[in-house]
Design goal:
The protein is of the alpha/beta class. Helices cover about 40% and strands about 30% of the residues. The protein has two domains: about 1-230 and about 310-320, P-loop containing nucleotide triphosphate hydrolases (Rossmann fold), CATH 3.40.50.300; about 235-300, Alpha-Beta Plaits (2-Layer Sandwich). α3 packs across α4. The structure holds adenosine-5'-triphosphate (ATP). It is found in: Cell membrane.
């Protein structure tokens, strides 16, 4: 459904008088099969949206090639656009018209008749729990309702391939969980292929058959969540001990664990299989007279995967990219649009 080879996108940015070239996407290869749900995960500024904009024909690649739904993104951009649904990060809904009118206009742009759009639009409103909101102005909807309306717009022409750019950013936990259900149903009920970007680890984990991780414009991993986690060396064991016992606890943990670190009264280390190691460790600690306040065992997370692959945690990577103010470099040029 999606194939990309060596996709590159460079932008020119200006900081004061100085011009700087940003290689936002730096040689991306991708293969997404029909019916797959792929989570495209990476910190802020990693190149997720830029990749998505190239795949959806909104941005012409600086170099490299891509086919989407069997069509070349540069030479056959119209066919690509007709074959896909795209829900952008900002959402495509204007605030001045009623929700139903927006949907009608949008569907008719795809060449559907008024009757076809209305039937399909109302069906999607019911499926996405927007019943009764056809006449409502989007500005008077909740964040979750607005985001679901964006998704209606992306699905109005019944695409079999759907691109979602950070579908749940800014939503409260309940609205996120609700949207996750709808996204999961795109595949289970409609057999759609879904390519979604996110910087939420739990979202990538919950929704995706396969996770592709991008960092600084390059793909650093692509596999199922379980396989990625299996690459991380072991479960994290964290001990909290009385003030005088930190050194002793670190020594005992060090006998069975790798990468032992202390942090205040806490001692952390990685063990291959916590279930096997922890009972013995507890006996050892007791035997050594260590006053244990708490013990916590955590299975590897996708953040551990990112850390293992890049040497940085996702959160640190985000701070690096966006700086303390949270603003990325001021964009100047847009690259040539297709
Ligand atoms: N139009 C533009 N002009 C200049 N630089 C840009 C432009 N668009 C993106 N960039 C830069 O390219 C890099 C990748 O940005 P992109 O938006 O693709 O990242 P992202 O992974 O989608 O991030 P986020 O999670 O914050 O949306 C960043 O350094 C960004 O500042």
């Amino acid at each position: 459904m999606i194939t990309a080879r060596g996709l590159v996108q460079t932008f020119t940015t200006r900081a004061g008088k100085e011009k700087k070239e940003v290689r936002a996407v730096d040689g991306v290869d991708l293969d997404v099969a029909e019916g797959e749900v792929v989570g495209f995960l990476g910190p802020n500024g990693a190149g997720k949206t830029t990749t998505l904009r190239m795949l959806t024909t909104l941005l012409r690649p600086t170099s490299g090639t891509a086919t989407v739904a069997g069509y070349d993104v540069v030479r056959e951009s119209q066919q690509v656009r007709r074959s896909i649904g795209y829900v952008s990060q900002a959402g495509g809904v204007s605030t001045s018209a009623r929700a139903g009118e927006e949907v009608m206009d949008h569907g008719m742009l795809y060449g559907l008749s008024r009757q076809q759009v209305e039937t399909r639009g109302r069906e999607l409103f019911a499926q996405l729990q927007l019943d009764g909101l056809w006449e409502r102005m989007p500005k008077n909807m909740s964040g979750g309702q607005k985001r679901r309306l964006d998704i209606v717009m992306g699905l109005i022409h019944d695409p079999t391939l759907v691109f979602l750019d950070e579908p749940t950013t800014g939503l409260d936990p309940q609205a996120r969980a609700n949207l996750w259900e709808h996204i999961a149903r795109l595949r289970s009920d409609r057999g759609a292929t879904v390519f979604l970007t996110t910087h939420y680890l739990d979202e990538a984990d919950a929704l995706s058959d396969r996770i592709v991780i991008i960092d600084q414009g390059r793909i650093v991993a692509s596999d199922t969540s379980d396989n990625l986690k299996a690459q991380v060396s072991g479960d994290l064991v964290s001990l909290e001990v009385a003030p005088d016992h930190v050194g002793l606890a670190a020594q005992r943990l060090g006998a069975v664990a790798d990468a032992v670190e202390t942090d205040g009264l806490k001692v952390h280390g990685r063990v291959p299989r916590a279930g096997r190691v922890v009972p013995t460790l507890l006996r050892e600690l007791e035997g050594a007279g260590v006053a244990l306040e708490s013990i916590e065992v955590r299975r590897p997370t996708l953040d551990d995967v990112f850390l293992t692959l890049t040497g940085r945690s996702l959160r640190d990577a985000e701070t690096e990219t966006t700086g303390p103010s949270g603003n990325a470099a001021e964009p100047e040029t847009e690259g040539a649009s297709a």
